[in-house]
């Protein structure tokens, strides 16, 4: 005890220095406060800003608005006529009617100009060429033109063929030869190759510390090498099919009106299903016909599968997801919209890893809405955010997972069947990049032949509601959010198996 009193006296006599805490604005304090959504926004600003240019400002502002715009799909198992009337009284318009009006108007013109023209300068080319410069702000300088080294004569020849030939094979070039010449910025990015067909993403260029395993940038590049030197035909489609019994309602552009929460009708199920307007397009691209056998490989929470059922055409719809919790979400949606209805018998929920489904030649329509960075969700969510430090490795492996799932779908679908691949990400890696790899893998592993459907002309009547990115995509179509119509992002690509 005496020793303790001596210590107290000594502290009173001597001035003992104590390390001061940093102020609230110190960088170390701010770094600890940084949330996953903040990291997501930094990543998007750097990556998407270089791809979309000035358009990124509008996209960014739209994504930061927490509530996006919805479409209401009427539930055919509730009171359809009453629900239609109520939505029309709110000022909502049937999307099919709007589409037909614009399409008839465009068909009456002598020269129809597609809103998604192929003959534009590809912003990805500029990114690829200028990423080797030290200053990131030099990307997309005003008055930029391609250097003579960036395009060779062979590519020029192919470009001229694309303008005249509707069935254009896309030739994917190898990036392997360029990897050794790239100077790596060890702080933040993977440098890009010089081939415009090889898409890329900023990822850490060194090992990922703090994890049991780590990913090297060279491993990430290998993902694209598997898509080199492969050709696929592109077939134009002029019409977007709207099934007779599918009733999607929306509000006009710039409208701030929102749909009220759906009530239950006389049959005990909800009147309509609300989901992002971009999510409807992959369902329409499936072109559901009478008697189709449909598989939704990654179905949770179940909105697209429910919408497919609303066409009243499939013989059966199988809604699958990998985890029990996600499968339970599908059960909950089915109970709310299909409970005690005849269509409930045509709706099957399964819990399997989409990469391991082996029901070959059973499904003629497959929707592949894969796990992705879910860009809008990542900017608002804390829990289950893929930009959490603990999920960094998982995020970098997303393209590999996505290509595995899509490859399996392409091998499972029947000859003459349709596969629609979709994500809610703006990333070209997860979109066109995954498609090109999966097409090559499916051909190598099963000798199946696919064609990609160019739906630019078919989608052009929707120009008053949807903004489609014009970044030189080779395969699919990308809905980007705008302040006037805040839905998306939604990428989708329609693929038909012909052999």
Write the layout of secondary structure elements.
Elements: H1 2-13, H2 27-33, H3 36-52, H4 55-63, E1 70-74, H5 80-89, E2 93-94, H6 95-107, H7 123-130, H8 153-164, E3 168-171, H9 217-225, E4 231-236, E5 248-250, E6 272-276, H10 280-285, E7 293-296, H11 303-309, E8 316-321, H12 324-338, E9 347-351, E10 365-369, H13 375-378, H14 392-396, H15 398-412, E11 418-423, H16 429-446, E12 450-454, H17 456-459, E13 467-468, E14 477-480, E15 490-497
Parallel strand pairs: 4-12, 7-8, 7-10, 8-9, 10-11
Antiparallel strand pairs: 1-5, 1-6, 2-5, 3-4, 11-15, 12-15, 13-14, 14-15
Helix pairs in contact: 3-4, 15-16
Structure description:
The protein has 499 residues and is an alpha/beta fold. 34% of the residues lie in helices and 14% in strands. It is built from 17 helices and 15 strands. Strand 8 (316-321), helix 12 (324-338) and strand 9 (347-351) form a beta-alpha-beta unit. The longest helix is centred in the C-terminal third of the chain and has 18 residues, at 429-446. It starts with a helix and ends with a strand.
